[in-house]
Amino acid sequence: MAYLGIILFCFWLLIISHKLTAGPKNRSFSYARAFLGLRLWYQNPRILLLLIALACLIFLSPLKLVYLVFALAAYLTAFLCGRNFWNRIGPAWPGLILTLSSFTLAVITTVIYFHM
Asked: Half-sphere exposure of residue 74, counting CA atoms within 13 Å on the CB side?
């Protein structure tokens, strides 16, 4: 049951990475639309999948595994947002802020993971 959260979270990451890479290749790209979608949060299957995955991951998995999964997800998000920033996809400031904040979060969770 602990691995169900990891599998669902990885599936959510695959969906998000597809949304980030398959979006429009111009300045009309929106990170909010890519991450959250256009529907309300309780009508969006992606958000419900994320909530179920996080609940299973946090409550059923060991803490060290939770930090590892969050670090890998933050590195992936930093890479994809950095790629979008470098290729001038979407507005510049949100891309730069998401890249730097994801990379900072990844470094912090990696440090916590290796000091446990």
From this structure: 17
